[in-house]
Amino acid sequence: MKVMLSLQDIMKRTQFENAEIVAGEKGMDRHVKWVHVVEVTNIEKLLNGQELILSTGVSFGKDTSEFRSFVQQLINCKAAGLAIEKGAFIPKIPQEIIDFANKEHFPLILFQQEVSFVDITQDIHSVLINQQYQMITQLENYSQSLNKKLLTITHEFEILTYLHEHINAQIIYENSNHERLFIPDVPIHDRKKYICRLQSANSPKSSWKQPVFVMEKQYGIVHIFTDERSISEFDHLLLDRTLTALAQHILRGLYVEEKRKLEESEWLRSWLEGGQTKESIREFLMRNESFISKGAMVLLCKKRDSKSPPLDKTYLTLLIRSNFEHLGFTVFFTEMKNTLTVIMLNSRDEKDWKERLRTGVRSLLEKQQDKKGCTFIRLSAGKYVQQLNHLSKSFQSAMETLQIQEQLLEHEDFSCFEDLHIYRLISFMQRHHDLRDFVMEYLEPVIKYDQKHNGKLLETLKVYLACNGSKKETAGKLYIVRQTLYHRIQKLETLLGEDFMIAEKRLVIEFMVMVYEYLHTTTSYLEGESKSFSQ
Predict the structure, then answer these.
(1) CA 340 to chain centre
(2) Is residue 245 within 8 Å of residue 146, measured between CB atoms?
(3) Do 121 and 159 belong together in one domain?
(4) Would the pLDDT of 527 be above 60?
(5) Is the model's pLDDT at 306 over the cut of 90?
(6) How does pLDDT run across 353-364, given as a tens digit for each residue?
(7) Is the full-model pTM beyond 0.70?
(8) Is the peptide bond prior to 91 cis by the omega test (within 30 degrees of 0)?
(9) 130 in a domain, yes or no?
(10) What's the CATH number where 330 sits?
(11) 304 plus 414 within the same structural domain
(12) Is residue 278 in a domain?
């Protein structure tokens, strides 16, 4: 489809019957997007490019230097050309201007008699608008027809063949495996010529390439070559719509593949629970064309709370795979206890596995943010294990990490088991001992005081310890005045002893505050505490 007028086309219009090309004939194939009437000398800020300028020369016709400056500005703005009305202001175009325009291949058109600029602009604009309308109509028809074909298309070849039928150009498609598809097919010796052209800097008028992206990951490149004509704006628009259809086709294939992989979850659950041998794990990885990794870990993904929207697990698996595979992780998915469980096999050096993991997590969380910058998911990573038949240890530690995150680190989007340190110690101690009596031995006076007076001594104690005894910083974080803080510290000294900030005692108290918070989140502890206080 011819979607733009050239200067050659315009010269055939009725209003240009008495017009003459006086310079820049080599540039007459330039396209015209719009027509402007200009009678001022400073115009660089007024143009966008590809305009045909109409002028009587009233502002520059009697000054050759002003005339040259005017033409230079048009060239700088990439105007299509200049059409001047011969008359009192410009009886003749100076030879200096003609030579300059010829040198730059900038078309100068001279009307030999008076013309109506209104009629010219109305005529050309009506043609341009009509062409735009036709282009939009044809693009809409093309898109609708292509979308219908997507229901039955099974290969990228059919989509690109449909594009070829509309642009009649050589198409080469390179997929993510670097395989090349030629449409239409060409002999082997011609293929080599095209491949050489792929690797060289081609002219945008006769060749064009555009990548195919699915969820921000490139899955291929489409190349177009047209030796007999220039690539038009309409060709670009058709290609854009074709790439959208191609991306939808690829996404559908990825979606089906991810769904198939999720069906393997039963075997994966057995692996996570320690029910698979080294041999069975090796066979599974070989069936899935995966290499034996240097180690592995488990990553848990769960929606933040009950108010968060339900997880689209199929979409999330696509996103996780896209984020982590290029960082050296092979991933497998299953769902356990309303949590998406990700088995991550490391295929690179073990030294930087945690750094690569954090990079992938950051990218994943950024893509899961809402307009306010809040995320709807939590991520918890278990311990790193070198033997794949010990993956259950990573799974159990990931579950423990998720529990700690929900109880003590509710504002954190991601936690790694190996970074929890003191929280791991609390969790371990709680599994083997009842810590309630130990906590109450140190904190009972403060807890009872807060319950009786509806006070905030325990919160003050926590912040005061975290600020290393800095009264100014503590007051700022609690949003209270210094005098109120001094009163609370005096009360803490009365309840805990004046030596509660001495190193050894302070360390134990700070640890007990963390233990109390951990226990305080469980129903069993709250019931036990209630019974203790009632006694």
Answers:
(1) 22
(2) yes
(3) no
(4) no
(5) no
(6) 999 999 999 998
(7) no
(8) no
(9) no
(10) 3.30.70.260
(11) yes
(12) yes
- 134: in domain: no
**Residue 254 sits in the same domain as residue 278:** no
Listed range (147-161, 352-366, 433-447) with the worst mean pLDDT: 433-447
* Residue 138 maps to a domain: no
Tell me what pLDDT residue 433 has. 67
Q: What is the pLDDT of residue 130?
A: 87
Domain that holds residue 244: 150-259
Cα separation of 178 and 218, whole Å? 12
Here the tokens at position 165 are 């039928």
Residues 483 and 474: beta-carbon distance below 8 Å: no
What are the DSSP calls for 416-485, one per residue? EGGG-THHHHHHHHHHHS--HHHHHHHHHHHHHHHHHHT--HHHHHHHHHHTTT-HHHHHHHHT--HHHH
pLDDT score for 17: 86
- Are 532 and 436 spatial neighbours (Cβ–Cβ below 8 Å)? yes
Contact 238, 167 (CB under 8 A): yes
**Tokens standing for residue 6:** 């050239």
CB of 385 closer than 8 Å to CB of 394: yes
CA distances 314 to 95, 258, 334, 474, Å, are: 71, 7, 11, 46
Per the structure, the count of domains in the chain is: 4
**Among residues 39, 38, 111, 51, which one has the least CA distance to residue 81?**
51
366 and 435, same domain (yes or no)? no
> 274 and 404, same structural domain?
yes
In angstroms, the Cα distances linking 235 to 80, 222, 471 are 21, 13, 70
Query: Which of 391, 419, 447 delimits the end of a domain?
Result: 419
Max Cα separation, the chain? 112
3-state secondary structure of 56: coil
* Residue 22 host element (H or E): strand 19-23
Domain boundary among 259, 281, 296: 259
